[in-house]
Amino acid sequence: MNNNSLVSIDDISRDEILQLIRVARHFEENPNSRLLDGKVVATLFFEPSTRTRLSFETAVNRLGGRVIGFSDASTSSSAKGETLKDTIKMVSNYVDLIVMRHHLEGAARYATEVTDVPVINAGDGANQHPSQTMLDLYSIEKTQGTLENLTITLVGDLKYGRTVHSLLMAMRYFNPTFRFVACEELRMPREYKEFCDREGIRYTEHTEFSPEVINTSDIIYMTRVQRERFTDIMEYEKVKNLYTLRNDMLADARQNLRVLHPLPRINEISQDVDDNPKAYYFEQARNGLFARQAIICRALGIDPLK
Ligand code: CP
Predict the structure, then answer these.
(1) 55 pLDDT exceeds 70?
(2) Pocket of ligand 1, candidates 45, 47, 52, 129: which has the most ligand atoms within 8 Å of its Cβ, to mutate?
């Protein structure tokens, strides 16, 4: 495995997280450079994406590199039955860095085992989405002025939502208090609650998205119910609209509260929230560009602050 790969948020330390935030801030102030001159990056998306793929590709372009890849695996030879191993080995012949999204949990880790080229996990099944976590951390730090001692409420699909799993793990360095708001079917999996217990992270579980929960939060992190992870579509239909944030629900929220969502949203946040100054999800997605510029430089061993 190339040590600069980013497969899980667990691969990076507290100091590296803080350094990536500093570098993201640098890129927000200076988005264009030639740091990737001569470098080629592959974006291999075996699952659909708008933000992650386009922001990674924009990041490479803004750093002066070039991009190859596919956004639809049915146009690649995997549709003819080529294995993931062979695909990764082939692509490694052509590029300096691989960014990959795959529906199978562990696919990115596996990719690192068959290539010496660094791999960035752009989402593997319900497992991890570490670049999303870096942009979430950057967004939290920007809006709260700190990552320390915050109360963060995670709402919706906590079972399959890889973004909440990665965020939970990254926040262990910063003394958070979590609220998990989900229905019985989509509760935070036991392994992540055990992680909290081991790391001394406080959390409470709720089935009701109550005013008490909303009005004592610094961050509300809404998530989409992930239809693509359900084997029984009736189960999805039962739970898909259980939690919707409306503007009137924010009337007594803390001044510093910000509403995040990794997007895409379906019905989790009503459109009347969009003009509330506490809504931050579109800026959050914009921050993805700067966070991903920082992640790409780390993967290629480039220090933009030198
Ligand atoms: N947040 C996120 O991963 O969005 P996309 O699926 O559009 O990449």
Answers:
(1) yes
(2) 52
- Which pair of tokens denotes residue 179? 């609220």
Here the tokens at position 263 are 């997007």
pLDDT for position 228: 78
Ligand 1 pocket member 263 (CB < 6 A)? yes
Annotate 48-64 with DSSP letters as a single string: --SHHHHHHHHHHHHTT
HSE-up (13 A, CA, CB side) for residue 61: 9
Which positions are annotated as active-site residues?
51-52, 80, 101, 129
Residue nearest ligand 1's atom 1 by CA: 262
Question: How far is the C-alpha of 19 from the C-alpha of 171, rounded, in Å?
Answer: 15
Reported in sequence order, the residue ranges of the chain that DSSP labels E, i.e. its strands, are 40-45, 66-70, 97-102, 119-124, 151-155, 177-181, 202-206, 219-222, 258-260
pLDDT score of 148 more than 80: yes
Asked if 192 and 165 touch (Cβ cutoff 8 Å), the reply is yes
- Mean confidence (pLDDT) of the chain: 95
Reported as half-sphere exposure (CB side, CA atoms, 13 A), residue 214 has a value of 18
**Residue whose C-alpha is closest to residue 221's, from 169, 302, 157, 173:** 157
> Which class for 50: exposed (0-12), middle (13-18), buried (19 or more C-beta within 10 A)?
exposed
Query: Which SS3 state, helix, strand or coil, does residue 277 take?
Result: coil
What confidence tens digit (pLDDT) does each residue in 107-132 have? 999 999 999 999 999 999 889 999 99
Amino acid at site 11: D
